[in-house]
C-alpha cells in the first residue's frame, strides 16, 4: 500500500501547484490600474467595430 501514499502526495502537490498558478494570474490581473483597464477595453471595442461589416455598425 505504499504506492497509495505516493499517489496521495502527488495529488496534494498537483493541487498546490495549481493554487500557485492561479495566485500568480490573479496578482498579474490586479496589477492593472483602472485607467489601463479602460484603455484596453476601448481599444478592444474599436477593434471589434472596425472588424464588423459596414451594414452591421450601429
UniProtKB/TrEMBL annotation:
The chain crosses the membrane at residues 6-23. Keywords: Membrane, Transmembrane, Transmembrane helix. It comes from the Bacteria. This is Secreted protein. It comes from Nonomuraea salmonea. The lineage of its organism: Bacteria, Bacillati, Actinomycetota, Actinomycetes, Streptosporangiales.
Amino acid at each position: 500500500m505504499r504506492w497509495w501514499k505516493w499517489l496521495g502526495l502527488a495529488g496534494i502537490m498537483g493541487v498546490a501547484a495549481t493554487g500557485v498558478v492561479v495566485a500568480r494570474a490573479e496578482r498579474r490581473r490586479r496589477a492593472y490600474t483602472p485607467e489601463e483597464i479602460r484603455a484596453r477595453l476601448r481599444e478592444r471595442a474599436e477593434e471589434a467595430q472596425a472588424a464588423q461589416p459596414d451594414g452591421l455598425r450601429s
